């Protein structure tokens, strides 16, 4: 009885042609994708820092009876930037959630064409979201008179985290659009090189 090579070493050479993904940055993501994955560790640490801040708040509130006024908003901000970055991280790994009922039933050639089309459409969508983000940044970084003033939370502490989140979203959407273009170009090149061979 022969054993399935996937079960033995965990590597499936055709795994990337399905919806499963590999769990690593795909080669087609290029240097940008590798950079996105490396920076992702910073945002993973933000989740840990958020949990540590919440534990600190529990200690301050229930042990020392001296609650803070900054932990709640800080933990929300740290989790929010991690979630925003998560979309970019998943794009670099080609591991985003998708409905693949039809896609997985198609042959490799059709999938290769669809990959390029999907990445181009995704790049256009990300560019539109970047434009929408810029509209939010305009109103959150400048007041109606045109003076620079970052939008705050309105709490007693009033940090400028809403403005920072909107600015971060704009940057991520721009990079996401570029990442999708890189993926589209590299998938198209691969398809071309396979046809030439």
UniProtKB/TrEMBL annotation:
The keyword Transmembrane applies. It is found in: Cell inner membrane. The keyword Cell division does not apply. It comes from the Bacteria. Residues 52-186 form the Tripartite ATP-independent periplasmic transporters DctQ component domain. One of its GO terms (cellular component) is plasma membrane. GO terms for molecular function: transmembrane transporter activity. The chain crosses the membrane at residues 38-64, 70-91, 112-134, 163-185. Pfam families: DctQ. Keywords: Cell inner membrane, Cell membrane, Membrane, Transmembrane, Transmembrane helix, Transport. It is a multi-pass membrane protein. Residues 1-26 are annotated as: Disordered. Belongs to the TRAP transporter small permease family. The complex comprises the extracytoplasmic solute receptor protein and the two transmembrane proteins. Part of the tripartite ATP-independent periplasmic (TRAP) transport system. This is TRAP transporter small permease protein.
